[in-house]
């Protein structure tokens, strides 16, 4: 199993390099767009949004797990995945805005998916702002997880249901799932991009998990010193 | 003032009655504390007065469309209400009384009681702001039924989400009021967008705006139900930690 993973990690670099080269050089101009030549950015835009969704779901799962099990390692993993997801959401927004400028005439036109991603970006940013304002590690983990769950429960129809249900959008429909959508070369480049980015995400998540385990092992080793320090802070609090 | 409760009783009729009773007591306590200083009411009413005056003074020479008027009204309402809504939880933490409250009342009652108080506060903000706003910036027409229901449903969603976020930011070390805006805003933005769209229908007689206002009201009602349910489910974790 670990051998397979090692081979996949070695293949990641050529895979991602190949999708970038294919995106710029191999793909023919996409039909049905205002500027077919510049529509090739979709093979970078769509994988970013798909893998950002995957990372967000995994992160939310870790946040729920933290609230159930109260193990700080879950919160550490949730935070790592949210960071990666935020980076990819930003890339999705930027590539989407460039695409919108060329094809729809303006960087920002309050299309339903643009509004949704803006709110999503603000929720993620608020998650990190809230965490930064709380000193106590466990409290930070609990409140961060609770906030992200509340926000993701409270605005799902805007981030998930509405963008995919309304016909009133500039975003094309069925480009990936139907035969009327993008041509074969686009689909294969796009899904190769999804595979490559998911690999990078899984790798960073694995590294973050390893870092977390090392950190908590170190804490256990210096546990004696820590509990002494904890007693001092308790005494300080009481005084 | 309150009877001590032993643990949280759930899933029985008396448990629910106990929760509601405790929520009522907390609501009364919030009112009493508020009327000692009138801090929240004073700050929000002054805030809405100054913003309405500023808006009308700055725009007195302009003729505004109904959508601009609707948007300005909600911006004033949102910011005025937000200046007072965090108080319910920040006060408990600053006065060091939250531990006592944790012993006395179940978590759901604490959220419900404070939500009731914030609802009253938002209603007061709306009662002060909206008539004044309609006098200084009168729209072409007013559909009172539509306007009142949008204000009621929007106020319900606003207080429900803001009360929950207030319980989170009350635990922060410093900069609570700035953090309250940052953290509450993404959750409130969908509400704001829909409320503005519905208010446009209450300010003119365009048939498509009217139908949009009615469907917007359904979204506002859903938003209130979802945020209140989510808050009640998650508040236990915030409060017991």
What can you tell me about this protein's structure?
The complex is a heterodimer of chains A (239) and B (241). Chain A is mainly α and 239 residues long. Chain A is built from 8 helices and no strands. Chain A has helices spanning 2-26, 42-69, 72-103, 112-132, 137-154, 156-165, 184-221, 223-238. In chain A, helix 1 (2-26) crosses helix 7 (184-221) and helix 3 (72-103) runs antiparallel to helix 4. The radius of gyration of chain A is 21 Å and the shape is globular. Chain B starts with 12 loop residues before the first helix and ends with a helix. Chain B has helices at 13-37, 39-58, 66-85, 87-95, 98-104, 107-136, 144-169, 176-203, 207-240. Chain B has one domain. Chain B is mainly α and 241 residues long.
Helix count, DSSP H or I runs of 4 or more residues of chain B: 9
- Percent of residues in helices of chain A comes to over 70%
Identify the quaternary structure here. Answer: heterodimer
Element order, helices and strands of chain A?
HHHHHHHH
Total domain modules of chain B: 1
E-strand count of chain A:
0
Content of β-strand of chain A = under 5%
Share of helix among residues of chain B? Answer: over 70%
Q: Uncertain spans of chain A, ≥5 residues at pLDDT below 50?
A: none
Radius of gyration of chain A: 21 Å
What's the story with the biggest beta sheet of chain B?
Answer: none
N- to C-terminal distance of chain A: 55 Å
Question: What is Rg of chain B?
Answer: 19 Å
Number of strands of chain B: 0
Shape field of chain A: globular
Residue share in β-strands of chain B: under 5%
- Structural class, judged by helices and strands of chain B? mainly alpha
Average pLDDT metric of chain A: 83
Task: List the topology elements.
The complex is a heterodimer of chains A (239) and B (241).
Chain A: H1 2-26, H2 42-69, H3 72-103, H4 112-132, H5 137-154, H6 156-165, H7 184-221, H8 223-238
Helix pairs in contact in A: 1-7, 2-3, 2-5, 2-7, 3-4, 3-5, 3-7, 4-5, 4-6
Chain B: H1 13-37, H2 39-58, H3 66-85, H4 87-95, H5 98-104, H6 107-136, H7 144-169, H8 176-203, H9 207-240
């Amino acid at each position: 199993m670990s051998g397979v993973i090692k081979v996949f990690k070695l293949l990641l670099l050529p895979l991602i390099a190949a999708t970038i080269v294919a995106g710029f050089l191999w793909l023919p101009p996409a039909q049905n767009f205002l500027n077919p030549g510049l529509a090739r950015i979709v093979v970078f835009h769509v994988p970013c949004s798909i893998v950002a969704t995957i990372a967000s779901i995994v992160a939310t799962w870790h946040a729920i797990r933290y609230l159930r099990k109260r193990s700080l390692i879950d919160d550490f993993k949730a935070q790592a995945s949210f960071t990666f997801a935020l980076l990819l959401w930003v890339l999705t927004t930027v590539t989407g805005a460039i695409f919108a400028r060329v094809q729809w005439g303006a960087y920002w036109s309050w299309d339903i998916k643009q509004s949704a991603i803006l709110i999503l970006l603000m929720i993620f940013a608020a998650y990190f702002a809230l965490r930064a304002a709380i000193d106590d590690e466990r409290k930070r983990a609990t409140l961060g997880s609770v906030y992200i769950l509340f926000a993701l429960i409270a605005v799902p129809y805007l981030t998930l249901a509405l963008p995919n249900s309304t016909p009133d959008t500039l975003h094309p429909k069925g480009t990936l799932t139907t035969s009327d959508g993008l041509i074969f070369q686009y689909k294969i480049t796009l899904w190769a991009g999804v595979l490559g980015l998911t690999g990078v995400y899984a790798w960073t998540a694995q590294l973050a998990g390893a870092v977390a385990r090392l950190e908590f092992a170190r804490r256990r080793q210096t546990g004696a010193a820590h509990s002494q320090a904890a007693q001092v802070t308790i005494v300080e609090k009481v005084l | 003032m309150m009877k001590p409760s032993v643990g949280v009783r759930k899933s029985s009729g008396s448990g629910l009655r106990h929760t509601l009773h405790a929520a009522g007591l907390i609501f009364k306590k919030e009112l009493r504390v508020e009327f000692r200083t009138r801090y929240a009411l004073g700050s929000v009413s002054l805030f809405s007065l100054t913003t309405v005056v500023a808006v009308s003074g700055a725009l007195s020479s302009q003729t505004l469309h109904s959508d601009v008027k609707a948007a300005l009204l909600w911006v004033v309402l949102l910011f005025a209400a937000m200046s007072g809504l965090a108080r319910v939880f920040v006060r408990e933490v600053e006065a060091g009384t939250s531990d006592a409250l944790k012993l006395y009342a179940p978590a759901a009652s604490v959220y419900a009681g404070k939500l009731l108080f914030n609802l009253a506060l938002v209603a007061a903000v709306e009662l002060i702001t909206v008539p004044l706003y309609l006098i200084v910036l009168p729209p072409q027409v007013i559909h009172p039924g539509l306007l009142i229901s949008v204000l009621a449903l929007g106020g319900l969603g606003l207080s429900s989400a803001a009360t929950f976020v207030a319980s989170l930011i009350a635990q922060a070390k410093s900069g609570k009021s700035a953090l309250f805006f940052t953290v509450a805003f993404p959750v409130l933005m969908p509400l704001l967008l829909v409320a503005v769209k519905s208010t446009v229908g209450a300010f003119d007689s365009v048939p498509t705006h009217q139908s949009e206002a009615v469907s917007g009201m359904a979204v506002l009602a859903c938003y209130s139900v979802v945020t209140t349910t989510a808050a009640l489910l998650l508040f236990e974790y915030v409060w017991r930690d």
